[in-house]
Amino acid sequence: MGARPERRxxxxxxxxxxxxxxxxxxxTPMMRQYAEVKAQVPDAVLFFRLGDFYExxxxxxxxxxxxxxxxxxxxxxxxxxxxxxxxxxxSARRYIARLIDAGLRVAICEQVEEAGAAPGIVRREVIRVIxxxxxxxxxxxxxxxxxxxxxxxxxxxxxxxxxxDASTGDFFALEVEGLDALAEELGRAQVRELLVSEGASDELxxxxxxxxxxPAIAPLDAAAFEPARAQALLKAHFQVAxxxxxxxQDAPLAQAAAGAALRYVRDTQKTDATHIDRLSRLERGRHLxxxxxxxxxxxxxxxxxxxxxxxxxxxxLDRTATGMGARKLARWLTAPLRSLPEIEARLDAVEELASxxxxxxxxxxxxxxxxxxxxxxxRLSLGAGNARDLRALAxxxxxxxxxxxxxxxxxxxxxxxxxTPLRALPELTDTLGRAIVDDPPVTLKEGGIIRPGxxxxxxxxxxxSTSGRDVLLQIETxxxxxxxxxxxxxxxNKVFGYYIEVTKPNLHLVPSDYIRKQTTVGAExxxxxxxxxxxxxxxxxEEKRTALEYRIFEELRAQVVAAAPAxxxxxxxxxxxxxxxxxxxxAAEHGYVRPVVDDSDVLEIVEGRHPVVExxxxxxEFVPNDVRLDRKDAQILVITGPNMAGKSTVMRQVAxxxxxxxxxxxxxxxxxRVGLCDRVFTRVGAADNLSRGQSTFMVEMTETxxxxxxxxxxxxxxxxxxxxxxxxxxxxxxxWAVAEHLHDRIGARTLFATHYHELTDLxxxxxxxxxxxxxxxxxxxxxxxxxxxxxGGASRSYGIEVAKLAGLPVxxxxxxxxxxxxxxxxELDESGKPRLVxxxxxxxxxxxxxxxxxxxxxxSLSEGEAAVLKTxxxxxxxxxxxxxxxxxxxxxxxxxx
Length: 897
Hints:
Helix content: 40-55%
Distance between the termini: 111 Å
Strand content: 15-25%
Radius of gyration: 38 Å
Largest sheet: 7 strands, mixed
Strand order of the largest sheet: 13-23-24-25-21-26-27
Number of helices: 32
Shape: elongated
Structural class: alpha/beta
């Protein structure tokens, strides 16, 4: 037999590739088709289907072979060679994923007609373009995280943005003032790909400089962001006369961004994207705002150590059973609520579920049987789903009434509201359950998808293709009885097909309706109208069976797409139930309590615990702490103590407890009262950002500036060691000024950890500043960390003791103690040499006070102040640093006054 048609095409293409060298050699029909398709997607790697392979040519082949580490081959004609490489179509998904991770776009070009169906080469078309923001494959997608495509429309003073997850149908739009707010929303959503107008390069660079993680950039023609065009597309897609129902009637830039995002989905996926059936406007005032730096510093979604989920807040609280529940949990934790009624509704539901262990197990059992409805529906709507998606949908829908039945027995209004959408799909549930076999194949063109009994015509084709021998035996038996020819046989060969063979001694018994077909040495071969009809049925049964199964699949898929709004509502109810159940399970298992959330300015936590650190150490090992902040007596807590004592843990746990409470979760504490926060800011840790040309100190100051410009009286501010990235004097000056600004101008509740012990003097100057320290104890020359927050300021940092614990060589530690003693006795000796290099201590004389004491008295000094300054010059003064001299002078001036 000859080669299969598609394999022959591949051979033709190989020959054409050898000829098609940028117009130097003539193109074969196949390579001409390739060139035409490639011209449609010049910025994507084209996977061109040839038989059982996706082939790549020219620059696509060169780039792909390097990234995928596959062999780059070529076909030659004379001195010309065409680079090419390929991957098997059945394993293409993992290769596509690697190209997407490398920031490339991949266009999938498939055969859209059967070989031999029309003269000439098989017609091929691009059926889908896969980009970082347009991934639908479950093997590539992170199941517990959204994969957002972002779009931004820049205006004069305002900016519009859209967030669209094509895999789930989640679609949001917003308008904000300023690049900082825009960057906060894009960073919080962890956008994978960003659509921008080609003419907005300056604005784009300014935006990217504010993003911690840079998404892939997809420039679009400016017309894609034209508000009128976008508005028309959105109205047509949602079949509405106005966008007022979506809250976008007065937001042209949000409309522009949303229209560009929706058009991009439709253009790349070659579909109407009917599963995107709703658009929500994000109102920043409805949620507690967490910027990208805060999400990273608090390790809400990913750890700072390795970027993994394990060890993050979401990883600690996630007991969800479904992917859509896990994604909603992440959204709730990165966008906690500010509405007291909504928070209370969630807390009521969690409290009821936490108190009913049997109910939790019943709900969990049902949820474990439910697939990712959002992504299954998304794949089917975008034409990327298969029969296994329909089977998963059928199994999942069958669980929804069971889930509703359990929820109906509960009293929480929020849980009760979930029941209606869970009972809205009985017809689809029944149809899919009857139609799809329990374990369908992955591919759609091989048959075996539909259950027996669902379609009579299909059952007949299946019977013909699988039970042909039985039918032939029945015909043979009947004809023997009818003719009386005991040796009559029904046989088949490739030349004549099916026939009846009668030996020559029995020819006189042949009926008149037998049609002679062939004469052999010892027999005659005949056909009958019945046998010819059966032959036609059998020979085409498999082909017709496969085609009919595919048609039935398409009809079922169309039913799913038509039910997309109801499916989305059911998925929303399932995911909400899943998150609330996760909160309740964690609360019951780890001793979390219901927080009091109110409209006051009080933040009071009694025996609070860090949810992640506690889980790692164990409940018995973790030392809980009390914290109280308000705007009357304790607006700012200045926290001192040695490294490793636990200052950062205490501050982070306060922030996490606040956002958990406003997300509707119970919290790790004995008691907690949370006055609503509008934002949580953190300035924690230090790291260079070399890609932006920013030093450690510049990053620190940029983040601090952002806080001072955007914090309000309702905010919670976490500052850890402000000013440590520069000189001591500069750092202390900045830290002091920042604290004053927060106290005097902003009024935000603030936790301020520092090693500048001089900052404890703020409590003397500012009425709402309190000092506290993380206690330590010295035992036998060793430091024991007590991890307990107590009132008062620490007098030492114990840095050398911590260095010793870290394993520094003994001689280094000893020398450090010696140098510390030198520093504490002054900077210079009597000869003006640096005292820290000496191996003995000296008293500090007046020369050691440097410019702070030895400069001429400022003309503004009073006679008494000048006398004090003169005395300091004349006396030997024991002080630790020049700054200590300033402090002494200030104290003496205060006493004089």
